[in-house]
Amino acid sequence: MSRDEIFTRLNEVFQDVFGDDDITVTDETTAADVEGWDSLRHITLLAAVEDEFDIEFSMGQTVKMKNVGEMVDYIEEEA
């Protein structure tokens, strides 16, 4: 799966979780860039991403992720 394909699917997940069809994430996107991205929504987002890509993030991975680009890196490793 290409990085572009991952971003296409991730954008759909973000739009669904945050209820905003205008969200478009990039490598540099962080929680500060998305309205409503708090700790509770973060858990919901991670679960939705895991479901979408049939992967499971470890606790270490979730703590280390600083932006969406790092999330995509993990997805690429698992896909």
Question: How would you characterize this protein structure?
Answer:
- The protein is built from 4 helices and no strands.
- Helix 1 packs across helix 2.
- The chain has one domain: Non-ribosomal Peptide Synthetase Peptidyl Carrier Protein, Chain A, CATH 1.10.1200.
- The mean pLDDT is 96.
- The chain has 79 residues and is mainly α.
- The chain is globular.
- The relative contact order is 0.20.
- 61% of the residues lie in helices and 0% in strands.
Give a quick set of tags describing it.
79 residues, mainly alpha, Non-ribosomal Peptide Synthetase Peptidyl Carrier Protein, Chain A
Topology:
Layout lengths: L2 H16 L20 H15 L5 H6 L3 H11 L1
Q: What is the annotated CATH architecture?
A: Orthogonal Bundle
Count of runs of 4 or more consecutive helical residues: 4
Count of DSSP E strands? 0
Task: List low-pLDDT spans.
Answer: none
**CATH class placement:** Mainly Alpha
Please identify the oligomeric state: single chain
> From the helix content, strand content and strand pairing, which structural class follows?
mainly alpha
Tally of individual domains = 1
The value of Rg in angstroms is 11 Å
Order of helices and strands: HHHH
Query: What characteristic shape results from the CA principal axes?
Result: globular
Helix content: 55-70%
| Fourth CATH level, the homologous superfamily | ACP-like
Distance between the termini: 7 Å
